[in-house]
Amino acid sequence: MSTQTIHSEQIESETGKLGMWIFLFTELFLFGGLFLVYAVFRVKYSHDFHHAAEELNTFIGTLNTVFLLVSSMTVAMSITAIQKNQKNFAIFLISITILLAGLFMLNKYFEWSHKFQFKIYPGSEVLKNLPQGELLFFGLYYMMTGLHALHVFIGMILLSINIVKIKKGSVNQHHYLHLENSGLYWHLVDLIWIFLFPLLYLIT
Amino acid sequence: MNTSETTSHISYLEYQGKYKGILSWLLTTDHKRISLLYLYCIIFFFFVAAILGLLMRIELIAPGETIMGPQTYNGMFTIHGIIMIFVIVIPALPAIFGNFFLPILIGAKDVAFPKLNLFSWYLYVIGAIFGVLSQFIGGGSPDTGWTFYVPYSAESSTNVIYALIAAFILGFSSILTGLNFIVTMHRMRAPGMGWFRMPLFPWSLYATAWIQVLATPIIGITLLMVIAERVLRIGFFDPALGGDPVLFQHLFWIYSHPAVYIMILPGMGIVTEIFPTFSQKPVFGYTAILFSSLAIAFVGSFVWGHHMFTAGISYGSRWFFSFLTFIVAVPSAIKVFNWISTMYGGSIDLKPPLLYSICFIFLFMIGGFTGLTLGSVATDVQVHDTSFVVAHFHYIIFGGMGFAFFAGIHYWFPKMFGRMYNLTIAHIGCIIIFIGFNLLYFPQFIIGMQGMPRRYFDYLPQFQTGEVISTIGGFILFIGLIIMVYNLIYHARKGAIAPSNPWKGVTLEWQIPSPPPHDNFVEIPVIDAQPYIFSNTSDNK
User: Fold this and answer.
1) Which of B220, B234, B242 sits opposite A30 (nearest CB)?
2) pLDDT in tens, B201-216
3) What is the ipTM for the molecules in this complex?
């Protein structure tokens, strides 16, 4: 009886994971559209792109990359922790992940408001007078990092739900599909940043 | 003979779950009930959009302004297109017949994610409401055409945003349905049902689902970019903001051409189920049909450029896209040959589903051949943006997907509602629809060749004969549709009780009572053979 329950749970969890993976494919294609636009404009205006990228603060970018990489590690660790039934440790690790995500967003906020101070935002006069390629670069910069930030935000909500679920016991040693899928989502957020970072910050 | 069997089970229509009354529908996670929710919405929106189409036909009955001005006309064809494409044609077959019959055909109790399934329906309704709202509120109905070509869609002062949001949400709903189906087919096939024992309608849904999952995000991000362009003035496509309008066309068609296969592939799947049943003969070339579905889905994803032959793309890409377009015709033709070969030597029973399927082949072939005219670069330049394109498109989408839908609803109606419609009325309806359809669209090929542009509310006097015939055809078609829908709606409640297998079909849905019980199968079936084996004609194999 009990082996059969475990068996059906396994099937359920594999089904859930397959669904999540396919969903992640769609997310990749969503960003893929932006990467495609980036590629086209980059080829067309490579000089302008180099020039515009110098405006971005590589230090903040690097710091954010570190935040996300570490957070990816902590979320992976939290899954191992829950598998070993260390509930409090898992909650601690997820909290660290959310904290790092918050720091990422804070950094992003400073970065964007710094740009806004110099009147570099979509539709501003300063931006309109820049060369066409730089205009497009900043458009892509705001769209790509903005959409990514939205994903970070959704990821934070998903992880917070996991903390509640662990406390309530609905995510536990045997049922951790929800946490695992949130983790997968979080790795996607990380992965996309890994591509955004060099394309936007490091091409100078 | 099967009445006792039917009454001994509680059907999904009478099943009492956690909730009562209307909530038992709105909060249901039963794939069969969700399918009916989609069905009712789609019938409603279909008539909204069909009436818009009819109003356009009335406007075109004479040159000059007849019943509406140019701006109203622009709004009409845009909303007609958006509702028809995004609200009806893309979701209809997967969401109605896929939802209802995919789990049954593969011997499962439900789809893999029942709650997600309900969630997609809600997304669908929200998206559809946005689409209809865009017609009525504020700045006037959008006038960009359903293709949203930039720069105009970035600058038009009408409600383009609502239409864009509608398309985005509907796209998301479509992705979730596709995702659900893929996982269902991977994980939930009945014991013994290997991939190559799966019936062909699920196979066509499998090919469709992958397009839904992989292509739809591209239109999603493209629409988001246009929204950002309008709201935040971020330049991507609008030359006034430094962008590139041809890039928009590329991104739009990267999704929207494969979307044509989202529309037609499940339709092909449905008629593939119908031909063997009404010929009482195994389907001819099971493997060929299966792989041609996958081939259409694959090659169809690389032909989008044929929408842009006159948009200023390079000679090399025109050659490339034209070549691939011709390649897509091959798997489509394989299917047509297989359907006809299935009928060959069978004991053909010309019931309404088969009649609709034969109409489907006829109309789909006209649509397909004129597609080759459009797919070759030289002739495309002549007929580009004329009513020839309109006629071709409607032959494929309405003549193809639409007739497959009618075939499917007549085929599975007894299973879905447990009642039988009136066969004579169904035959008459089919013939009227077929005549009306051809009168409506065929003249548009001719005047299109002569130079009648599409999307114009006015035209030169020399096109009037064609336009008048077309409008008359529109009315005949509409009358036929009313007869068909009346026949179905009336008999869904009042019709004679249908046996569990009225057509002598052999796939799994005919082995359970009509309407099916909540859990589909009392006992999960074990599959030990290929589908489409008819005992009385086994020598025909």
Assistant:
1) B220
2) 999 999 999 999 999 9
3) 0.91
